[in-house]
Amino acid sequence: MENNNSRRDFLKKSAAITLGTIASTAIGNNALAASEFVEKEALINSVKFTLPALPYEYNALEPHIDKMTMEIHHSKHHQTYVTNLNKALETIAEPTVLSPSVLDASPSLENIFDNMSKLPPAIRNNAGGHYNHSLFWTMMKPNGGGDVKGKLGEAITKTFGSIDEFKKQFADVAMKRFGSGWAWLVYKEGKLAIGSTANQDNPLMNLESVEIKGKPILALDVWEHAYYLKNQNRRVEYISSWWNVVNWEKAEELYIAAK
Ligand SMILES: [Fe+2]
């Protein structure tokens, strides 16, 4: 028994280090391939997600997105999702609360989203918040915007008729999301599609109530915390500004990986 406990403690500690590093690196630097977080030996209560560093300075997106909004959005809002996700994961690690089989084999965001219906709302909100924001930071860059080119540009033109028509439809969906949520361009079953989700839901969540499913190509945060300091209630103004900082290269990378 003592040996088993020692092994379990060792696995917990080593998994915590490994997963913390993998999660922060993968989320911070790359395309959020959630499968990269998988560590079969890990125990769910060892998982600690961390806030990824922004790939640019807080003021780098000015004048389109202001420094204070970026700083509060990243260091306060996103940090809170990470903190509360870790707390929620500790809670469900109790074997009496949740069968270990749901997450123990793969304590990853991908597995969390796959098993969403079996998990409590705190996991849904905070895992979603962590994933969505981690993706969102990479969807923007200084001197971004311009025309979308490459294979994604071709696919958007083919699907929506023109880039301008795509932007119009995407902005319309973002405007019509009542309350807080996200607008998405996704790739599913060989096609691009536009849609939105409420709160911190995302298209990877295996839930009927999530209105659009697929692999995210473009994500836009339409919570008021993303624009209120600069644009107050004028979401339309924020969306219009956002096109000037979109990181189309990142979207192209996600599109090619999704195919
Ligand atoms: Fe946000």
Task: Characterise the protein shown here.
With 259 residues, the protein is mainly alpha-helical. The protein folds into two domains: 2-44 and 76-138, Helix Hairpins; 150-258, 3-Layer(bab) Sandwich (minor pseudopilin epsh fold). Helix content is 50%, strand content 9%. It has ten helices and three strands; from the N terminus they run αααααααβββααα. The protein has helices spanning 2-29, 67-92, 100-103, 109-114, 121-138, 150-160, 163-176, 228-231, 235-242, 248-258, and strands spanning 181-188, 191-198, 215-221. A three-stranded antiparallel sheet has the order 2-1-3, sandwiched between helices. A hairpin with a 2-residue loop joins strand 1 (181-188) and strand 2. Helix 2 packs antiparallel against helix 5 (121-138). The longest helix is centred in the first third of the chain and has 28 residues, at 2-29. Residues 1-42 and 94-100 have low confidence and may be disordered. It binds fe (ii) ion (FE2). Fe (ii) ion (FE2) binds at residues 73, 77, 133, 221, 223, 225-226. Fe (ii) ion is lined by residues 73, 77, 133, 221, 223, 225-226.
